[in-house]
Amino acid sequence: MPRELVFRLSRFRDHYFPRFEQKYRELVARGQHPSTLFIGCSDSRVVPHLLMGCGPGELFIVRNVGNLVPPYDASHGYHGSAAAIEFAVLNLAVTDIVVCGHSHCGAIQALYQDLPAEARHMRKWLELAREAVLPVRASGDALRRVEQRSVVLQLERLLTFPMVRARVEDGTLFLHGWHYIIEDGRVLELDARSGAFVPLEASPVKPAPDPDESADLLGTYL
Ligand SMILES: [Zn+2]
Hints:
Layout: H1 3-30, E1 36-41, H2 48-52, E2 59-64, H3 80-91, E3 96-102, H4 106-110, H5 120-126, H6 140-158, H7 162-169, E4 174-181, E5 186-191, E6 196-199, H8 217-221
């Protein structure tokens, strides 16, 4: 490990921790109550706390390769991301779930490449985004669109979790699709009605759930 990173541990203890010591003690005494589950990519350039200016106790974070959501399927295997989603919804009662894709995502690029034979887990895992792939050459614009399409796909898969779907339907949980443009420092948000990703600050006020449109859960409740 680079010595610089180890040095920063002591910087945290000596400078950052004292500023937030009271907050940390409260979070230990009363437990954590984050409002938001953030599902993001493991990419080192995606820094959720920096992006949203969050401190301790504000975000419950799941990061994996490609910010992917597995299907609700407890039949086999180890489901770390699925367990985290369940914990956030059932134990922490988060009110919002953000699936945040990003530009230049290596997971999306990998869908257009041959993976090494020994990358068995990666090959299987990335299938969770396969449906988002466009049959075009993997250029910059096309990859941005695939990244966004994958975010929509993961949001749809979130709704296969019964505890997510029930809370979305009764209006106590809201889903959000984001696309973080690393090189611009800005976030685009899925406008569920148009299907387009628009600058987050320009998003319309969240509409009240309309029971008449319940067939289109994403369009109604996001
Ligand atoms: Zn990524």
